[in-house]
Amino acid sequence: MVRLGLCRPECIRSNEVPTVMSITDARPQSATDAASASTAPAAGSGSLLGSGDHRAIGLVYVVLSLLFGAAAFVAFLLGQLHLVQTSFLSNSASDALLNASELGFVLLVAVPLFIGLATCIIPLQVGSATIAFPRAAAMALWTWVLSSGLFIIANSIDGGIGGGRDRAVDLGLLAIVGLILALLLATTCVVTTVIALRTPGMSLDRVPMFSWSMFVAGSVWMLTLPVLVANVVLIYVDHHYGRPSEFGVSSVQGLQIGWAISQPQIYAYVIPVFGIAADIIATLSGRRQPNRGAMLVAIGAFGALSVGAYAQPYFFPEVRDQIVWAAMGVLIILPVLAILGGWGALLKGGKPTLRSPLPLALVSVVLVLLAVLAGALGALTPLQLRETPYVAVGQLALIIAAAVTSGTAGVIHWAARLGGRRAPEPLGLLGVLVLLGGGALAGLPLIVLGFSTKFTGLADASDLLQYLSIAGAALLALGSVLALLALLASFRGEEAPADPWGTGQTLEWMSTSTSGDSAELVTVTSAEPLLDAAAGSQEA
Fold first, then answer.
1. CATH number, domain at 480?
2. Number of domains in the chain
3. Do residues 161 and 4 make contact, with C-beta atoms less than 8 angstroms apart?
4. Residue 199 and residue 11: Cα distance in Å, rounded?
């Protein structure tokens, strides 16, 4: 068994579906045409298995991704523990756990968690009665669920990347292809909703920040993840049909797909973090975001700099010595700083309500910033941080911690739209401490250990630093469970009002309905239609 590419030295080589309009910047202003465009099957009709209800589909994604997140952090913890106590597991079992957790962090946790939130919330934000192509969205969900089960089964019988059982490896490769195709189909539904099902007057520059961030993230995913599919298919064909070349050999399988969980591609999975944080900060501040256009551009720039399908060391060993790769790794700091500056201007002039989604959102952005700074240091050749796998693994831990923290913030912030009730505030506050501590401990000690190539004294503290990382993984597993408990708690108690925060700005806070059904479309004139309505009522 071998490890994935990021953990090796760099030098190693038929019901009715909605009628979706053409992709234009603005949706038709005719209410009749727009209503027909968002026609969907009745929400909640039939069983969950056959439902096209966007809320039900999204909730399944969120619940399962949080469960998979807890399991993946435990697997990561056990694999890391073996690296410290070599008698804890066999080498092959440790590699299998680490490989499965690292790839699972992306395909089972981060991407589906954001897709789940987007499937629930984005139709409400853009004023649509449903997700685009609801039956396709349902098919994507159940394909992802089935492929997740096959992925777990294959990895449990030595069929993961670089595994030793040929039939099981074939099954694992097919499961990865199924996972990616399902997520791409779900992403298509989300992006199409943002593009084509917006309410009248809502141009692309007026969509809520979370919707915009999912539009950017979905575009990057649809550009890069098909390349990962091609890599896996290449491995499968060579592995299954007699290995006429070296592509299917166990020792190089991980190297061929390691780019998908390495810099810069790893940043693509946390683009929605900025959208969730932006909506939470603006809502709890009760003010319009100043320089909103610059914020949209900054999120778009972060997405452009996270495109990493070209950076494949297996096919291009010198790619990480190229100026383009190093420049992208350093320049991606700039949009993050620009976004933080925009939020600083917003918070400076307002008095935000200090509720748990706000610190959770800020923690998630801080974790992304730490990961980006670590990546920038790794791009500097004199530091020699690419000589060990620790920085890459620590960076991955920070990114996934940011995704889970951001997802938790979104679950608590939109709990009234997900389950109909508000999430308990104590769970959210506890989640802030657990996820901040878990993210910092899981990632930063490994990044510090990466400096052992320059400071040999750090090698003496190797065991301590790795134990700290293990403790961080345990806290992140607990954080995933807390997020799930907060979501489940939103289904109990009294129904929340339409705007439980009292300062909602966007359309999801307009109605108490959790399904998004509305008798008539709303025409918007700005990015904050609820603030416009409040101002109009005060003038009247």
1. 1.20.210.10
2. 1
3. yes
4. 52
